[in-house]
Specification:
Strand 3 and strand 4 form a beta hairpin. 22% of the residues are buried. The radius of gyration is 15 Å and the shape is globular. The protein has 148 residues and is an alpha+beta fold. It starts with a strand and ends in a 14-residue tail after the last helix. A five-stranded mixed sheet has the order 1-2-3-4-5, sandwiched between helices.
Length: 148
C-alpha cells in the first residue's frame, strides 16, 4: 500500500469516490430522518483543486497494487485540521488502508503546524470509531438530530 498527496491526475478518481460517499451518507441520513435519500450538491473542480494544491487543506490517496482505492480529505479550520472524510472502496476494506490514511493525516497535519486534528464519525460506524480511539482520538462532543 502506498499513501501519497493527491495530484491533478486524481481529480476524476476523487470525484467518483466522493459520489459514492455522498450516496451512502444521503441514504444514511435519509433513513435516520425518515426522508429518504438527501442528495448532496456536487463540488466543483475548483473546490477539489484547492485541496489538491493544498490551498484549503489536503487530500491523500491510498493505492493498493498501484491502483487508487481510497482517499481522505483534511480541511483547514483556523489552527486545527479537520479530517472531513475518509473513504475506502468496499472491496479494499479491512486491509489496513483506513489506518494508514489516518496515521498519514496526523503526520501531515502536525508537519503543517496544526495543533489538533479533529473529526466526526457516524454513530453506527463502530469500526471507524474504534480505529480513531486506537489512533488516540478522544470523544469530545456528541451531535444529535431531531426530525421536525
Amino acid at each position: 500500500m502506498k499513501i501519497r498527496m493527491a495530484e491533478e491526475k486524481d481529480l476524476e478518481f476523487v470525484k467518483g469516490l466522493y459520489k459514492q460517499l455522498d450516496i451512502l451518507m444521503s441514504t444514511y441520513f435519509g433513513k435516520i430522518m425518515g426522508t429518504g435519500p438527501i442528495p448532496e450538491e456536487p463540488h466543483t473542480d475548483e473546490y477539489w483543486n484547492n485541496y489538491i494544491k493544498g490551498t484549503d487543506g489536503f487530500i491523500l490517496i491510498a493505492e493498493y497494487e498501484n491502483k487508487p482505492v481510497a482517499m481522505s480529505l483534511v480541511i483547514k479550520q483556523d489552527s486545527k485540521a479537520h479530517l472531513e472524510d475518509l473513504f475506502v472502496l468496499p472491496e479494499y476494506r479491512h486491509k489496513g488502508i483506513a489506518e494508514g490514511l489516518v496515521k498519514r493525516c496526523k503526520e501531515i497535519s502536525k508537519e503543517k503546524g496544526y495543533k489538533e486534528l479533529c473529526l466526526n464519525v457516524l454513530a453506527n460506524n463502530e469500526r471507524a470509531y474504534n480505529l480513531y480511539l486506537k489512533e488516540n482520538f478522544k470523544e469530545v462532543v456528541r451531535t444529535m438530530v431531531c426530525k421536525l
